[in-house]
Amino acid sequence: PAPTPWWKNAVVYQIYPRSFADSDGDGVGDLRGITDRLDHLVRLGVDVLWLSPVYPSPHDDNGYDISDYQDIDPLFGTLADFDRLLAAVHARGMRLVMDLVVNHTSDEHPWFTDSRDGGPGGPRRDWYIWRKPRPGMEPGTPGAEPNNWGSFFSGPAWTFDEASGEYYLHLFSRKQPDLNWDNPEVRRAVHAMMRWWLERGVDGFRMDVVNLISKDPALPDGIVHESGRHGDGSPSFVCGPRVHEYVAELHREVFARHPRTLLTVGEMPGVTIEEARLFTDPARRELDMVFQFEHVALDHGPSKFDARPLKLTDLKASLGRWQAGLADAGWNSLYWNNHDQPRIVSRFGDDSDPVARARSATMLATVLHLHRGTPYVYQGEELGMANAPFASIDDFRDIESLNHYREQRALGVDEERILAGLRARGRDNARTPMQWDATEHAGFTTGTPWIPVNPDHTHVNAEAQLADPGSVFHHYRRLIDLRHTEPVLTDGDFRMLLPDDERVYAFTRADATTELLVLANFTGEPAIVDLPDGWQDTGLLLANVPDPGPLTSPHTLRPWEARVHRRP
Ligand code: ISL
């Protein structure tokens, strides 16, 4: 059999550069700030850093709208700063992967301004997706869009260009026009750009919405769900007709030509298990792993801002299905948080008092890190950072939240109701500055941070947690260490126990020599659990409570308790 690829027992740490560490006092994090803080990541023990976008950008969507793929935004530094960061990462034995956003560019990218200004028939017109207005409608008026699709960030997915009388497609904001991947020139330009970064020394790519790059060229109207006014275009672009052809071409033209083994991750909203297997079965030579969203879409109604409590049995069913579905082929990412998700301790745990907070944060970490797949830690998660106390709409920065607010207000929805949804699910929860210490701006900046730091940094911060062996940080460090030292975590079979229990998450991992049992109480009350045979008094590998004591049958788990046992 082929040797196990290095990324199967690696842990990835995601950095959102804007909010990690600011070296020059302008209130925005930067590359030198990251370089200065690398020792934090060495102590934590992670293997790979994934940087959210640092390329030149008008920052309509915080850098996910790129206007130059081969440079660094002056806000974050220079290419020389980037090379120094990369060398410092490599010198510490870690690797660095770039965020690759090629479903769309910024509307300020020269590819798009050429496409727009050259008009129909111009040399780069076909690099983007242009269509005429709906026949019989007044161009530029509501309803005249080429189809009824809504954008992910509210409003129609089309914007009218007066000069040419045509519309361009944007699945995200109007400043993020979608590239036309059916055009081979576009694909060749993307391949060349990716090779340029690999030659510079980066170790791979996290590929933004890469399962949305191929659209059904007919662009048919979508169904209008009860929740919205626009049509749902996703059947025409989620894992669209030519997506595997384009991803396999990336492998052939870029990844396979490179001498080092890379990490390639496909971020894929709406991907099914069947599709994920196709993308990540090594025999098909497409990608190493997917990053999918099913488990973070269980606790809301038709709109993501319609927050509802999680049913633990739904979470187990979802994660369990993915474990089983990729058991013999393919690979998945394991995560609770990223820069688009509210903080997990506030979402599936309890951030209301210090003990419940540390317990629930470490319980959640234990459950996640003991699954099969590659674990991801999002900056601050290793401290148990929580959602922010946003008071009014003025506290939000994210285009998704601001557009949603405007749209809902225009529909007459009550302001407090909208704010409740934004507080629970808004992406800015993940984007408040990293909490390094208890000083004024948490050690993030000497200036004024672009978004306020969470006031809880006075007691939740890296400095305090490093000094406390019982902290969330040290629990994450131990979990990451286990990933490196226990082969059963990488390859062992996964078996879900107690699928119908609404309070306790339980499973085993097993290979030919070792078996692990994971028990986790997802509630703030004691929970009694009947053990499977033969686990009584087995060795304790890890727990998140003081004096955990031996495993009895039945066993009473304390509030938010998690423990891992090993046999033999
Ligand atoms: O958070 C979401 C909106 O509710 C997701 O649908 C998210 O937009 C989707 O997972 C794609 O995310 C990625 O691409 C976006 C960017 O805004 C996100 O930050 C990025 O992670 C467009 O580039």
UniProtKB/TrEMBL annotation:
Residue span, Glycosyl hydrolase family 13 catalytic domain? 14-431
The cross-references to InterPro entries, in alphabetical order and at most eight, read: GH, GH13_cat_dom, Glyco_hydro_b, O16G_dom_2
Q: Where is this region: Disordered?
A: 550-568
Q: Name one Pfam family in it.
A: Alpha-amylase
One GO BP annotation of this record = oligosaccharide catabolic process
The UniProt record lists the keyword Transcription: no
Q: Which UniProt keywords apply?
A: Glycosidase, Hydrolase
Q: Name one GO molecular function term.
A: alpha-amylase activity
Q: Does the keyword Glycoprotein apply?
A: no
Family to which the UniProt record says this protein belongs: Belongs to the glycosyl hydrolase 13 family.
Protein name, UniProt field: Glucohydrolase
Which organism's genome codes for this protein?
Streptomyces actuosus
